[in-house]
Amino acid sequence: MSTSMSELSFEAIFDLTSDFLCVMNLDGYFIRTNTSFRRHLGWTSDEFVDRSFVSMTHTDDLYATLSQFSVLSKHVASVFFDHRFRCVDGTYCALRWRITRESGSDTLLAAGYLVRHSKYRDTKSAVSKKQGELARIAHAASEDWRTLGQQTSRIGIWEFDLTTGGRWWSTEINEMFEFDSIVAESSIMAFQLRVHPDDWNDVVEAYNRSVSRKTAFEIKHRLLMPDGRIKHVHELGRTIYDDNGLPLRSIGTIEDITQQLQGEGELRLSEERLRQAVRVSNIGFFDHDHLTDVLFWSTRMREIYGGYLTAEITLPDTIKMIHPDETERLVQSIQKAHDPSGNGIWDEEYRILLADGSTRWVIARSQTFFAGTGSNRHPVRTIGALVDATERKQAEEALRVTDRALATSMTAFAIADETAQLTYVNQAFLNLWGYDSEAEVIDKLPQDMIEPESAQRMMDGIYSKREYRGELLIIRKDGTNCNVMASTNTIHDSNGKVVNMIGSFVDITESKKLQELFMQSQKMESIGRLAGGIAHDFNNLLMVINGYLELALIDLGPHESLRSDLSEVKKAADRASSLTQQLLAFSRKQIIKPQVLNPNDVIGSMTQMLERLLGEDIELQTILAADLGQVQFDLGQCEQCLLNLAINARDAMSEGGKLVIETENVQTDKACDECPPGEYVVLAISDNGSGMTEEDKSHLFEPFYTTKEVGAGTGLGLAMVFGAVTQNKGRISVESKSGYGTTFRVYLPRVYEASKLPDPVSANVTHRGTETIVIVEDENAVRELTARLLTNLGYKVLAFPIGGEAIDAVSSMTQTLDLLITDVIMPGINGTQMAEKMSALRPEIKVIITSGYTPNAFSHLGVLKNGVEFLPKPYSFEMLAELVRRVLDKPVG
Fold first, then answer.
1. CA-wise closest residue to 106 among 341, 254, 288, 273
2. Nearest residue to 428 via CA among 405, 408, 442
3. Contact criterion met (CB below 8 Å) for 106 and 25
4. One-character DSSP codes across 619-687
5. Cβ(158)–Cβ(236) under 8 Å?
6. Strand pairing of 247-256 and 230-241?
7. What does pTM read for this prediction?
8. CA–CA separation, 660 and 639 (whole Å)
9. Among residues 460, 515, 459, 461, which one has the least CA distance to residue 483?
10. Which one, of 270, 271, 211, lies nearest residue 237 by Cα?
């Protein structure tokens, strides 16, 4: 049984009040007493066993007390009386009682409280006895009654002579009425002066009726004091008649019952408090009479069981309503509670079945009372309480589900108290911090498990904003650090004070690494776009330079001195073109011709050249897999990659060393970072040179980044390798440590296709013609050079800077147009749109697209469909002449 249920139990409600409560049978024997009653009188619960109410009453009060119990045996609802009750030390306490018997009940519920003035209690008892004597000797001399009145307290005696009209009352009445002295010889006017005006007629009518009917006179009425106070009095009287039946004299008493009525009001208030407490607590009560096997159920009890039970209920009826899964266990526990050898306590939590088939959880507690001793001891009564625990069980189940969810969650959760000391962590938290058990972390503070700066930042957020969301650097059990993303919040009481802190934590170490890789990738992509854009524009300039150099060299004789100078300029321009090709390779926009090849063959063909390149102080070793697969790679780029990696290794071994080139086949779920699963051919180039720092590695593939002395390198070698490998759908990784050498690994997807080499093109044939060619190029120098080259070959040329101008001009022409040469990226309409519009105007026209980018860079524009040819920039005079002639000679369709 939970603590909350104990607090709401029947015993707790019974003991809730400070008034004296007890339950008795009709013979007045105690069944149960409350704590306040026992504590004040000094008796223990066991000492009340087999004792009766009457046995503990003062001998002078026995007759009156027995009379009250006699009244209750006649099914009267309740009685009120005062008496003296024996304490454990032999003294007596004056108590005022209200004893109630509900209709049809065999038990009595008594509620009482202490009468503060015992003198009043003793006097009242004496008056009660004197009133009895008064009834028997009413015909005696009035002096005897006067003497009796002087012996009493708070009760006054009055006498009215009907033959003379004379009145007399005792000094007690004078004091009760608060007269300074006997007024007007106890006149009727003085009496009327104190009776409440609203009650006077009732008093007169009651007296006259008793005289005429020769019955006793009794009435309760109010007195109105001069200061406005109200007193309540109780009058009793009887009239004496002569032999002829004529009234002679009336004798009676007046008792001040103001305090008594106040006490009764307090008792009613106490009972009402108890009823309200029971009602508010939502507790159902039951009372089982073992002799009749009849169960009394309170209204709330019936509501809990569905509200449909109205007839008498027996214990077997109750058992039938228990859930089948609980029946056997409950029957055994009930039998144990009813066993005379036990303590009679029954405390259970179980399910019941309602009439509609639904299930309800209840918590019940009861006490069984026994009669007899030894072998004759037997249960006679069971009183208990029951509450509906369905919502609580549902909440507990929801809490258990939440606990299981937290325990099995992959997210780390923690709860701390208001001082930030940990009070709960789940398994994911232990795993994240590297602890084995919850006991190792409970009561730890944030600064014990989080780097001080992070811990302070988190606590500042919690105390200022009542929450914190952000990254933390935690300290694991083994002393290592780990990055986590934290989300914390606070729980407050009704006054807004923080009582708990809760937090969730996610390991973001890997995600931060991926983020860094992504940022590096984005950085390389941005640099690539920049490099590609520069190379593209530079290509146009170099194409113009090379073109005019070629024209100049054609016009010069073989022995003119200027020819030698122009040849040197041409060589420098070619070297510049090589640099732009490396930039384009890095940006993956170089014009390439991938082909199926075996890296072993490429390495074999370059071995002698590499040995000469490395020098005598560097040993070259090749470890080539015999069954190495084929890859698809541009042959020139492949050779350039090997060459650049070898040069990079050579420069790292200034004092000599060893260069190892290895190849192998790899099939794995993850070949390297960012590599999708699959089959790869791996080229590994390792040296035992100076190695690299982490800073150098982070910039390794950036163009123009170099660790060499000024003038010793361009910083484009590894950038070209990165671009070439990536452009051919491969990946490259590097392992290096300062002072321990470097290993580059190139991962290339393995292919199983046959080699598809393009047909060789002769560069020595002069290609001329007379057809009409339309050129659209936004770069003026490139447009003018191309037009001049084609004019020199005999073609008719129409050149335009933008597509819109060309379309407008062609629309008004009637002459035959044979070929369109257009750039791809231009203001206004692009090359694709230009080709489509031109083909719509002249369906027979053929098209050549030119660009400094690879076709893959603008494949989304669809420029190479429908037989369109591509001419990469920069192109030579011979390349232009050959392709133009070949396209013009191609049959239509």
1. 288
2. 408
3. yes
4. EEEEE--TTPPEEEEEHHHHHHHHHHHHHHHHHH-TT-EEEEEEEEEEEES-SSTTPPSEEEEEEEEEE
5. no
6. antiparallel
7. 0.36
8. 16
9. 515
10. 211
pLDDT along the chain (893 residues), means of 10: 42 66 87 87 86 84 75 70 88 87 80 63 42 38 40 68 77 82 58 87 91 91 89 91 86 87 73 66 84 84 77 83 92 93 93 90 92 88 90 84 76 88 90 91 88 90 87 91 90 85 88 72 64 68 77 73 74 66 53 78 85 86 92 81 85 87 83 70 90 74 56 56 81 84 90 57 60 91 88 92 90 91 86 87 90 57 62 80 90 69
Report how far Cα 687 is from the mean position of its chain's Cα atoms. Answer: 55
Structural contact between residues 368 and 286, judged by C-beta atoms closer than 8 angstroms: no
- What 3-state DSSP class applies to 140? coil
Which of 95, 96, 107 minimizes the C-alpha distance to 41?
Answer: 95
**Contact in structure between 235 and 218 (CB atoms under 8 Å):** yes
Q: Which amino acid is at 335?
A: Q
Q: At what angle do helices 509-555 and 717-727 cross, to 10 degrees?
A: 100
Q: Look at phi and psi of residue 242 and say left if phi exceeds 0, alpha if psi is from -120 to 50, else beta.
A: beta
Q: How buried is 613 (Cβ within 10 angstroms: 0-12 exposed, 13-18 middle, 19+ buried)?
A: middle
Beta-carbon contacts of 881 under 8 Å, excluding residues fewer than 6 positions away, are 766, 767, 768, 789, 793
Decide if 827 contacts 801 (C-beta within 8 A): no
488-491 CB contacts, 8 Å cutoff, 24+ apart: 488/458, 488/461, 488/462, 490/462, 490/466
User: Rounded to whole angstroms, how far apart are CA atoms 252 and 216?
Assistant: 10
H/E element holding 743? Answer: strand 742-751
Place of tokens 């249960």: 379
Q: Which of 801, 683, 789 is CA-nearest to residue 733?
A: 683
* Local structure of residue 257 (DSSP, 8 states): -
Question: How many helices (DSSP H) and strands (DSSP E) are in the chain?
Answer: 27, 33
The closest of 409, 406, 412, 408 to 476, measured between CA atoms, is 412
In this structure, what token pair is assigned to residue 290?
Answer: 């073992």
At 326, list the tokens: 């609980």
Q: How many CA atoms lie within 13 A of 249 on its CB side?
A: 14
